[in-house]
Amino acid sequence: MALSEDEQKRYTRQMMMDGWGESTQEKLKASTVFIAGAGGLGSPVSIYLAVAGIGHIAICDFDSPDLSNLNRQILHDHTRIGINKAVSAKMTLEKLNPDIKITAITDKIVEDNVDKLVGDADIILDCMDNFPTRFLLNGCAVRKHIPMVYGSIWGMDGRLSFIHSPETPCLRCIFEEAPPKEVFPVLGATPAVIGSLQALEAIKYLTGIGSNIKGKLLVWEGGKTDFRTFTVKKDPDCPVCGGK
Length: 244
Known about the structure:
Number of domains: 1
Low-confidence stretches: none
Number of helices: 9
Shape: globular
Strand content: 15-25%
Helix content: 25-40%
CATH superfamily: NAD(P)-binding Rossmann-like Domain
Order of helices and strands: HHHEHEHEHEHEEHHEE
Largest sheet: 8 strands, mixed
Number of strands: 8
Structural class: alpha/beta
CATH topology: Rossmann fold
CATH architecture: 3-Layer(aba) Sandwich
Mean pLDDT: 97
Distance between the termini: 34 Å
CATH class: Alpha Beta
């Protein structure tokens, strides 16, 4: 997919990087990503993928923003309260980059529709706030043989991993059970850090430039400004990817 004159100018600075150029930018233009969640993590993820030139972003969220979201969910503002988050995200992202396609999906992700919603996406960005839905996305990624970038946050802390079964452990290998659902604290700068890293993981995979954090779990302790990386291993008895 050839770049227009405007696109060549828009992406000039990233195309200056070693190994990038026009051909790599065209890979991004031909890519489709599925972003699950248009909240704290989904905001920086979708913004940085949009301005990087991902050709098609499908963003899914059934909820609508309220005032308590606005310390971190920078896709939205006080004028969007009551509007569906995916629709609000589409409005914001189309202003940031009118040269790409944004699909707003307003359905709730459930077991019966997850495969259809993800469709033909090249990669899944897990920007959810609950593990039952993360596990549904993980199962979809395993079935479709596509990667998923996991990100989660709590207060000033966050976690990140690049999951691509069978090459890597799946999410159920790392987390056997979902923790109890609860309202948790979060500072807006935390999803900004983790979401930006998620976007970078997706871009590296789609372009083939750089290496992904495969088989590892990155833990960010924001209070200490400390990154630590832990090796994770496949569970041969995993109910999702075991034996694959």
